[in-house]
Amino acid sequence: MTNATIAPQEKRFIKLTEVIKMTGLSRATIYNYVNVAQFPQYTKVGRATFWEYNEVQNWLDEKLAQRTPKQ
């Protein structure tokens, strides 16, 4: 048996412009989704707003998994 250790994933914070590029959603839609808990929550650092990259990527993966295959 081997004792494999899993390295924790590095946190990578991204700004709204990158979230928009990743998702194709508008700024207003992203904030609307956040307000109704349908999108990952952002983090404020001073006046800057950031999202955690893996949370946004996981949200996209969930949306892809929910797709209905064409018949």
UniProtKB/TrEMBL annotation:
Pfam families: Phage_AlpA. SUPFAM superfamilies: Putative DNA-binding domain. This is AlpA family phage regulatory protein. It comes from Entomomonas asaccharolytica.
